[in-house]
Structures
1.
Amino acid sequence: MILSSLMLKAFLLGVLGSLDSGGETRACSVKSFRLIFDHVKGKASVMHYWKGPKRTGDTSKLKIDRQVRALTLEQEFPLTMMKLRLGLFLFDLVFRFDISASVTSSIFTTWVKFRAKELKWLIVLPDRIVTHRNLPDMFKKYYPKCRVILDCTEIYIETPSDLAVAAQCWSAYKHHHTIKFLVGITPNGAISFLSDFYGGRASDLFIVEDWFC
């Protein structure tokens, strides 16, 4: 059965919020969800859905008839969030939303590309004055000059069909195929930097040196 309004509300309260935290955190997550969705829904209503690099083409002026879509925008957005937040398999989402695998894949790919373009302005490195003004008390005491905290992270991916790509993406640490990238956050926890993606084979040292040296 397609995600109902009641199920959507349960998702917002449960998945986006921390299940182990109080209502204040969950309410904040719901508020953030609505804020982001309301910001992008205008442009999302005219976006063209991904059908592969050869079939999608230049779609900047094309408008999609929402009546022919399997889900509403308000259902497509949490579908994407569920995939990113929980790492659900494609056919899990197919079952939950009662749509085909091809439509699910198209929705997810479209929203990921769309959000990467429309929300990239959220990732910004504040200047030193702003960073210092918002330093947590412990940082003011022990790390007053800290501006950004860097670390590499990995995301599990399906096994690539290309053997050369599969070899580049194999992570000996995770014992799985992954993509890896460098993340920077400000001392108060806001994401302020993202590097390009690397195969899981790349070491943290290699990524840092390749990006900054």
2.
Amino acid sequence: MPNSVVKLNVGSKFIAGDIAVPLIELDLAMGTDFRHDPIAAVTVAQDRIRDYFAEHLRVATPDGSPWTVSIKDIDLQKTIGDANASYVELTAKVVMSPPEGTSVRALMLNYDAVIHKVATHSALVIVGEDWLTGQIDVHGDPIFVGVIRVNPIDNTIAPLPVNLSKGSYWRGFLAMLQLGMSHISEGTDHILFLLTLLLPAPLLPVNGRWNGKACTRGALFYVFKIVTAFTIGHSMALIIASLLRLNLSHQPIEVIIAGTILVSAIHVLRPIFPGRGFIIAGMFGLVHGMAFSFTLAALNLSTAQLVVSLVGFNLGIELFQLAIVALVLPSMLLFAGSGYYAPVRIAGSVIAMVASVGWIADRLDIDWQFLLTR
């Protein structure tokens, strides 16, 4: 049977925990019958489930002083286990805060949910995020801490000592630098937006069309203005949104980002803001910066850690953007005067427009099949 997982996301002042328990095992432990109609049953039993976890999760300092434990959101998710068999898990979000003046990095974890009733059950304890050690959940595998299970010799369930390494701000900085680079490398919309901004670089607008060819110096200056304006825009938004810890809504910002790609793609096809591209890039950068801030908002960082993270994350973004510019700009300048560039520019514009419309529809949750069949 599948077992439970307790994931610890270590912040500066508290630990945010994610507990995942197979629903069938929880039924055995609580004497319930959630499996036949999980959503309805769990919704009704929210308070009872919270009380159960509060009773079976106790955290203390190494000398025995109790932590404050608060059970938050209860949810359900489908998980793939061994042999590709799927099963339903109940998840609980937990906030664990140490006594004033004590560290979050040393604790005794007393956890026996399900284990106290199902002797064969165990709980895997892992660290998902720990900024000071450079462990960021999106980077890959979590850190193994230990397993809580029944001792077969005396049938006891011993608390698990958790002693996290001290870590450093340097490790946190390097992790955020890597996160900034991976955020752009995995963000197809951000890359497409940057490439769309670059496509007109070697061209000059003449009579409302891209008919002229810019000199190399002019093209480089155009790229410098565009990249600088975009950098200033997204950096300002990222800093303000992160330091003020603004609670921004994801959907409208993601929709607007797709819209910025659409507008930029139209500009590539025919200049709609000639000579003012850098202003538009700066304005659009503000929106992209708000989206970047979502990544940092998910981490439980102190103000000092957040400042260091902003520097590292932003630097990672800039390094990857500069790598993209260095990779594509030489070929753009080389072929700008040939007959090959116009088809490439038009194709790039069309691809960007199609992608942006698709993203807008997806982020607005538009049912195209329904619309087309009406």
